[in-house]
Task: structure prediction
Amino acid sequence: MIGAIVRRELSAPLMRELMRELARTAPPGEQYRVYIVGGGTAVLEGWRAATIDADLYSEREEVFRDVQGIKERLQLNIEFARPEQFVPALAGSADRHRFVERVGLVDFYHYDPYAQLLSKIVRGFRKDLLDAEQFVRRDLVDPREFLELVRQVPNSAYAKYPNLSRSSVLAAVEEFLTGFE
Result:
């Protein structure tokens, strides 16, 4: 094992510091979008005090050119992830990202809450389901619209996810949503 480094939990102030560092080290002269996913959304939205890592995504990876240095300076874990790596895409996802703030040339967004919710329900760990509840309770997701979006995912979309089936995903979503009727 290469020297284990103890990393700090990601709190809201540390998340904001991470955002400033990403903006500071972004290549100059261009604008970027960085999406916050998972625990970072929970922390910035205020339903969790901290998370173990920052899950981030950008279509333009050059914005992360100093990510190793940032990880070391801030002593935190950064992962590159988005829901579609784990679950099928929901129609209209690109239109549902929620603006957080602009720092320098970087616009920060919460990744589509509907896509995040689906990912958390499918993963199904206790912490994920507690986060999933908050997406609904805080009106970040409309349960009826969410169910309809999941129902619209074509069977062919599941081919990319061999551990998932349309029927099991729908069953998990419907079971989860029974708590919100």
Notes: The first helix runs from residue 12 to 25. DSSP finds seven helices and seven strands in the chain. Helices lie at 12-25, 39-45, 67-74, 113-123, 126-137, 143-152, 166-177. The two ends are 49 Å apart (CA to CA).
